[in-house]
Each structure stands twice: as C-alpha cells, then as structure tokens.
DNA sequence: CAGAAACTGGTACGGCCGTACCAATCGAGG
DNA sequence: CCTCGATTGGTACGGCCGTACCAGTTTCTG
C-alpha cells in the first residue's frame, strides 16, 4: 500500500500525477455538477482512470470531496487574486464596483444559472459533509479579504463586506428559483443598490 | 387504474386519505431531511404504507416531490399568516421587527441549523427539479406579501422586502458553513442592522 | 348480485452507489 | 538480476434507488 498510516500520499512521480489528475477532474465536477454529482465513478471517468484509482488515492469519497473543493477554490481564487491586484486605485462608480464584487465573490466566469447553482450547492454541502466545513470557511475568509482589498481600491473602504456578500448570495438564490437565467444580472443590481444606499448614508 | 388520463387522483375516501398520509409524510421529510432524502421508500416508511402506494398515487417521484413541497409550504405559511394577522399595528423597534421577519421568512419553529439547512436545500432543489420552480416561486411571493404586511403593521412600510430577504438568506447560508448552530441568531442580527440603517436613511 | 373499477401489497428488474479485494505489472534499491 | 513495495485495473458485494408488474382484495355501480 502506498498509504502509510492510513492516508494516501503517492510515493512516485507517476502516482502523484495520477492523484493530481483525479483531484483536478473532481474539482471540475464539483464546479459544474455540484457535490452530489461527484461520485467515484464520475470522477474516474472524467479523469480517464479506472474506478479503483479513486479509492486507492483517497480513503473515502469524503476525503476526495474535500480535496476537490479545496482545489476548486484554489482554481477560482487564483485569477480573482490577480484581478484584484490589477485593480486601479481610484474611486469607482457603484455600478462598476458591483460588477467587481460579483467577479470576486462568484468568480468572473460563473455566468450561467447552472454554474451558480453548483456554486451554492457546494456551500450547502457543508451541512451534510462536516469535513467540508473547514475548507469552506477558509474559502469564505479568503474571498472576504479579497473583497475588502477590492473595495478599498475602489474608494469604498469600510463597506460591510459581510452584508454585501449576504445580499449577493441571497439574491442569487432567489433568482435561481425564478429559473430565467438572470441570476447574475439580478445580483449585480442588488449589490449596486446596496452600495449606493451605503454611500448616501 | 385510479389514474384517469395519467394523473393519480383518488376516487374513494380511503384512497384520498391514503394519498393525504403520503403527502403529509413527504412534506415532513422534505422539511427535515431535505429533498434528497425524500425517496419513495423513505416516504412509504414514514407514512406507514407499502412502497407501491407511493407510485400508485403519484406518477413519478418528481410529482410526489411537488406535492410535498406544496404541502410543506402550506403547513408553514398557515401559522405564519395567523402570526402576522395578530400583529398589533404600532411602531416597533428594529430588533423586535427583525425577530418577526425571521418568523415570517423562516417560520417560527425552524430554530436548528439542520432545519435551516433543509429549508435552503429545498430552494436549491428547484435547479435540479424544474417542476418545483412554480410552487417555489409561488411560496416566495406569498412570503413576500406576508412580510410586506408585517412590516407595514410594525411601522416599517416601504422597506425593501427583497433586500431584507436576500440579506437574511445570505446570512443564514454563510452561517451554516460555520456550523456552530448560530445561523438564526446571526441572521436576526443582520436583519436588524439592515432595518436600522434603512430607517436612519 | 354481478361486474368493473379502485386499490393493495409483495416482488422484481436494472441502475448507480461506496467500498473491498486481488492478481498482475511496474520501477527503484539491494 | 531480483525482490519488494507502489501501483494498476478488473471485478464483485451489498445497498438504495425509481419504477414496473400483477395477483389478490375491496368498493362502488348498474
């Protein structure tokens, strides 16, 4: 067994690469299909490895899921970090800032309702898979820090990021029920409205 | 077959009672376990009927799920309607109003994180089960109307109910990730804060 | 009192699931 | 080279799932 002590860390370069491929495929699945669609067999098929490889490198599906969510967060936060770092330091209109807030919290590429659906299923999954909670919490904090930095650069320092994120999340979830594909648009409007009412206060 | 034309309406009193029992059990399951935990077998066991009864009265699991979500909404909105109707018509402090908002939107009895988890899984389920969307939309609208009425009675007429609900939903979802059982408390604080900033504007 | 329709309940099929098992293969250290 | 641990991949088990089937029973109707 490669797994000394119970975990499953690869001991060879090839093994590491394979584990890598599995995690990457799982992260892709989590991001597109949600955690419920992320099964051993689905991951194995997506990664192009036999079923047994997924149980060889991860003690359980929960372990695999944790690695996948961790990876999905990294995959998404990398570009966002660059995006924030590239933000010019100048006062920006509420409407434009709203777009930036969406890019930071949701990622710039999550445009379709289906993508947003998977995004929020991931959060809710914390309830059924407690092992996911630490990484979800951590991700939340990283996003919050990024958002604070972004708002600071746009001349909105001191904004209540928790409230901003809450309005965004809540609006998306309501919009997903409508099912008209306008979730992101609605969320942007809601964030812009909140930003404007804040700056007028 | 009882189902003339394809649907499955009972033709006898006993049949109606049985269908009733199934819907009631399914609604209970949806409210406590979430839609994913609501299977034919789980419902049959909870209702104390054989498995086949669930497929006899409902063409598919989706049909059963729709009936269950509809029923769950009715079960919850009834008490809330009475609660709102009993609200005295007088200006009320933001903090107290926040508690009322939570009672209306979440229901007065959904106190534990697990209950809230199931509540939001129900909304997200609309994405995977499009048949649920109409009833979810309808429920959303009923809650919004109730909330408008409640706020009016408390001297907060004209409040942005959509924004209020969004902050509430978003806060609960973030809090569920924390997993410390304080979701409802946090949401109440967030709603109170928003109400206060609104009235000061 | 038939006969038909509604209902009952046990059973089964095919599918996907997580996980376990194990013989075969590979690759580096002796 | 040879050995041994790492890795591979095919297979299987038991479980839950949605759904279908059907012989038997009840209940309504003419």
TrEMBL record, chains A, B:
Keywords: DNA-binding. SUPFAM superfamilies: Homeodomain-like (SSF46689). Residues 16-76 form the HTH tetR-type domain. One of its GO terms (molecular function) is transcription cis-regulatory region binding. PROSITE patterns: HTH_TETR_2. Residues 39-58 bind DNA. Coiled coil: none annotated. InterPro entries: Homeodomain-like_sf, HTH-type_TetR-like_transc_reg, HTH_TetR, TetR_C_31. Transmembrane segments: none annotated. PANTHER family: HTH-TYPE TRANSCRIPTIONAL REGULATOR RUTR, TRANSCRIPTIONAL REGULATORY PROTEIN (PROBABLY DEOR-FAMILY)-RELATED. This is Transcriptional regulator, TetR family. It comes from Geodermatophilus siccatus.
